Amino acid sequence: MLPFQPISGAASDIRSLFTVVLIIGAIILLLVTVLVVYSSIRFRARKDEPEPRQIFGVRRLELFWTVSPAVLLGGILIYTIFTMYRVAPNIPVNEAPDLMIVGHQWWWEFRYPKLGVVTANELHLPKGQKFVTEVTSADVIHSFWVPQLGQKLDATPGRPAYMYIQADQVGTYLGSCVEYCGTAHAWMRIRVIVEEPQNFDAWVKQQAAIPTIPTTGAAGAGAKLFTELTCAQCHTIAGTTAKGTVGPNLTYVSTRETIAAGAAENTQANLEIWIDNPQVIKPGVHMPSLGLSANQISDLAAFLEALK
Length: 308
Ligand code: CUA
Fold this sequence. Notes:
Layout: H1 9-42, H2 59-87, E1 99-104, E2 107-112, E3 117-120, E4 122-126, E5 131-137, E6 142-145, E7 153-155, E8 161-165, E9 171-177, E10 189-195, H3 197-208, H4 217-228, H5 231-234, E11 258-259, E12 264-265, H6 268-276, H7 278-281, H8 294-306
Parallel strand pairs: 1-5, 4-10
Antiparallel strand pairs: 1-2, 2-3, 5-8, 6-7, 6-9, 9-10, 11-12
Helix pairs in contact: 1-2, 4-8, 6-8
Dinuclear copper ion binds next to loops.
């Protein structure tokens, strides 16, 4: 089962703790069930038998069922605290973040301040490299969680939280917002793409460069529309006059596998549906439908598809 295949030391520690508690819980459940079933059969009321002898208090038994759970819980507590320190060690306050995660209603912004990259919803990580990560929010409380990657961390507006993120296995891993944050909470997905360091470097090099903005054909017409219509009020595309920060940064949007924080595959057809009426794909989303013509929609989609 996927959540149980950790790709980091932290996730592995969390799995161990979970497994131990699960096994202890299962043994206790089994023990109690067996005793209850056994007693209700063995000591059931029978015809012509008098009331059994009434017993008030058995010190030895009472001590047993008070002390043994206390010892067990104490053990779990110590193991849990130990795991918490391993999973979420204190990060020195003077350490600048390598990665900034900002929750928005309802998408994720990923900024790599040291690399000059800003992207959305799909987090790229180089295998085996530890990232000091800051998690915060632009509006309400969200929570960032990719189970195979490690701990869950709340994204609270005005109160940044920190953790280390390190992925040790190449692949694509899924997560989501895990704090109810409004209508489209369920469509606030996270896609983590862990790559070999050289592939990650190539990705960074591309994402940090200014894209070539098309000037001819449908894509060229779309580029013009994008900056003239209200798109530019909310979205940024490097190399254009679009500098909005309300919605996701769309520079190189075409290199992403999905759109709308994982709500649909990134295809030209889906982009057209999305631009025409975003509510069809993601009910509740803040992006408005602009009432564009079919031509305008296909030009815009062609432009976005060209950003790669
Ligand atoms: Cu963001 Cu739930």
